[in-house]
């Protein structure tokens, strides 16, 4: 009886370990191709659109479009790598009232759920952290395959004052709008569109 029970326990453990290993193997790790990727933002200053971009960012992405619920996505952005049309504005964005990039050098998005919408489209819910302030956001993403890589693109809006960006003297939204549109196109190696 004990021998049968031990054999049964071994089989259950082996099956559980095998299932865990199979799950780990199907959850593929993607590699960001930074030279072909971009993250930009557009704000309005006194009604005039101002667009900037971040030069340095990286991503840690494990995503299988057949099992999106198991996805793990993390994107880190170097806030000091912001570029705009003016070096004076770039210097101002590094100050404590804006990005405070000396004390909080990185912004981070970490996914918590992925919802498939069909046709290579997904809604990714996650936590965006900027200046040690974290807010939950939903990011619509479209995947498009091209050769051996896949482009993940989308856009979403944040409210800068929710993250204490440009607070204080710059908190007047008639000078600088509260809403900031973020656009991205991340080229990834290792993703397949279902």
Give the structure's gist in a few sentences:
By secondary structure, the chain is an alpha+beta fold. The protein has helices spanning 2-26, 87-93, and strands spanning 29-32, 38-45, 48-54, 57-62, 72-78, 82-83, 106-118, 121-130, 133-146, 149-159, 179-189.
Could you name the key traits of this structure?
alpha+beta, Lipocalin, 8-stranded antiparallel β-barrel, 11 strands, 194 residues, elongated
Written overview of the protein:
The longest helix has 25 residues, at 2-26. Mean pLDDT is 87; it is low at 5-26. This protein is of the alpha+beta class and 194 residues long. The chain contains 2 helices and 11 strands; from the N terminus they run αββββββαβββββ. It has one domain (28-189): Beta Barrel (Lipocalin).
Task: Describe the SSE topology.
Layout: H1 2-26, E1 29-32, E2 38-45, E3 48-54, E4 57-62, E5 72-78, E6 82-83, H2 87-93, E7 106-118, E8 121-130, E9 133-146, E10 149-159, E11 179-189
Antiparallel strand pairs: 1-4, 1-11, 2-3, 2-11, 3-6, 4-5, 5-7, 7-8, 8-9, 9-10, 10-11
Q: How would you write the strand order of the largest sheet?
A: 1-4-5-7-8-9-10-11
Q: Indicate the percent of residues in helices.
A: 10-25%
- Structural domain count: 1
Average pLDDT value?
87
Please describe the biggest sheet, giving its number of strands, its sense, and whether it closes into a barrel: 8 strands, antiparallel, barrel
Please give the number of β-strands.
11
Instruction: Report, as a whole number of angstroms, the end-to-end distance.
Output: 48 Å
The SS-based structural class is alpha+beta
Number of helices: 2
Q: What string, H for helix and E for strand, traces the elements in order?
A: HEEEEEEHEEEEE
Name the beta content range.
Answer: over 45%
CATH topology: Lipocalin
**Which spans have pLDDT < 50 for at least 5 consecutive residues?**
5-26
Shape: elongated
Radius of gyration: 21 Å
Level-1 CATH class name: Mainly Beta
């Amino acid at each position: 009886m004990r021998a049968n029970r031990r054999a049964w326990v071994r089989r259950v453990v082996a099956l559980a370990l095998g299932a865990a290993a199979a799950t780990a193997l199907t959850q593929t790790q993607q590699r960001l191709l930074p030279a072909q990727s971009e993250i930009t933002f557009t704000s309005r200053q006194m009604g005039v659109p101002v667009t900037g971009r971040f030069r340095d960012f990286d991503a840690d992405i494990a995503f299988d479009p057949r099992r999106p619920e198991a996805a793990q996505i993390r994107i880190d952005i170097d806030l000091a790598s912001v570029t705009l049309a003016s070096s004076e504005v770039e210097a101002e964005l590094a100050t404590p009232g804006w990005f405070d990039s000396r004390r909080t050098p990185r912004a981070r998005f970490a996914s918590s759920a992925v919802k498939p919408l069909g046709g290579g489209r997904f809604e990714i819910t996650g936590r965006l952290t900027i200046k040690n302030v974290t807010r939950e956001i939903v990011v619509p993403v479209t995947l498009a395959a091209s050769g051996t890589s896949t482009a993940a693109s989308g856009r979403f809006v944040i409210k800068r004052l929710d993250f204490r960006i440009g607070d204080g003297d710059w908190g007047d939204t008639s000078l600088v709008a509260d809403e900031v549109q973020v656009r991205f196109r991340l080229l990834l190696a290792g993703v397949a569109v279902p």
